[in-house]
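Help wanted!
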Amino acid sequence: MRVSAGGILNKMNQSSILGRIEEKFSALVNETHSRPGQDTVIINKSGIVELARFLKEDNDLKFNILADLTAVDYWKKDPRFQVVYHFLSLENRFRIRVKVPVRESDCEVPTLCGLWPAANWYEREVFDMFGIKFEGHPDLRRILMYPGFEGHPLRKDYPKTRHQPIIEYRELPVHGSKNTTTYRNKK
Amino acid sequence: MTDHLDHDNTFFEQTGEKEMFVNFGPSHPSTHGVIRIKLIADGEFVKKTEIDIGYLHRGFEKECESSSYTQCFPYTDRLNYVSPLINNFGFAKAVEDLMGLKVPERGEYIRVIMSELSRLTDHLTCVGASTMELGAFTAFLYMMKAREWLYEVIESVTGAHLTVSYARVGGVKADLPATFSEHCLKVLADTSRVLEEVDILITRNRIFYDRTRDVGVMTKEEAISYGVTGPFLRSTGIDYDVRKAFPYHVYDRFDFEIPVGWKGDNYDRYLVRMEEMRQSISIIRQALKTIPAGPTNVDSEGNVIDAASMADLGKSGRTSNLINMEARVEPTLEGSEKRFHTLIRDDNRKAGLPPKDRAYTNIEALINHFKIVMDGHGIQPPKGETYSFVEGGNGELGFYVVSDGTSHPWRVRCRPPCFPIMAGLHNVLEKGQIADIVATFGSVNMIAGELDR
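Answered by r_m:
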């Protein structure tokens, strides 16, 4: 058993990352900020694959882990969705968040499956929960919900109380009455 | 329903002439939860697998969106139900980051101690269950025994075995009980003895070694490309541990090491977990030595005072010194004799409930209590978003919380450490035989609660 101390190796300063990205992707980046202490880039969806490749392959950055991929539904705003990526550089201990605004009318983002196989399941989950499609994804189907499920549950306009029983609820006798009732109200 | 069957058929149809289609799960005894592995086998060899998850999906993220921040804590208990305290603290840390709160030092020490106790229970369960599946029933019983002792310690602090809900935004629910240190040290000594016993029984056991060495190998590159973290990543030889890489709470004050393996097989994962448990025990011992002292229930003149006499003082108009006093609370008020106070909880009025003695004795604290508890008031972080992460039992447990400035989170995303592991597991399983699936799957420590949320 080898035991390592595993300390922090900050060769390059994290604060210079945003500057480099702004310089390189000036036409595509909408905004960069570091509130609250976390570097964030908002980029057009046409630039996400290029940016991800740059983050992954640049020798000073080496963001080799796709730590998380999710989406947020800003209902009643335009663009409605934001796909949120969190990258982590194991070697430099850097972190960065990249956000891609997505319109409801054009609910599609290029996939990152080509760069990280990890994106496969994350993107399936975002598709399942928000209905955002990932262009070029090899196997885009539901992952947590069953395939016959209607709608996308984490959209804000999906009511929390809606039931979609796979098997119809059985009618149960009501105690002391001739009537029957179902276990739950149907939608 | 029909396209569900259709999809099953497309996988099923790949079964070749002399191959066999096998359903492993969703309720197989060794799957530690509900998960289904579809596999195509050629004799004993696994040719192709597909993992089907979602059987335990309870809508954690959707529920959180319609709950206040405090109401989310019981849901986080049920993510990784083997180490619920770490989930609690992970979510609390995310909300604290949003609000810019700082947990008082004693509170942070308590969080570290309780997190490490949870890590112990998590690893004990994983190692115990996976050895049992390979026939080592004794080790399982020994480890469950130790886990029960640790759960008793956790129960003495939180009041529950599993559904603890112990964290609060800005600190923890209540202080440690008076006899905590002795009880905990005794249990840790007993647990280390159990670890020694299991070490003697298992580590050099020929059967165990043959069943796990070079089985279920994941390479460094695979682990990185799938975003795997935790003991699984460390078994491949990468020393990434959130506690060292991005120290949170007071982890940077303790002297501990990160065990790493070199092959990334089941045996390495077993060794990494065993060593991590020893390191956790060492962290708890260090923390118990250096934890800042708890409260003293005295008034400004050094006399012990109880809440009723404090109320009497207030009624008779002698209020000048009242704000500096801390009163002993009747057990009936809190439901227990443990207290919460500013040493374990941030005293920011917008996040923490005021101490019970204050709430029962002065009007400002009563209003404060009311404002925190009532629906629509509650904890209201400023608009913004944060991704906050802690080292869970299985790896990096992240919470991405978006606040719109109201008392309900706009979005709570939990990044479960199991999820990337399960996404990459088919690569590992396809290298082996059917019987190895049980060994490999045990060493993953998949927890369906956090995988499916």
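OP: Thanks! One thing I noticed: Chain A touches chain B through 46 residues (CB under 8 Å).
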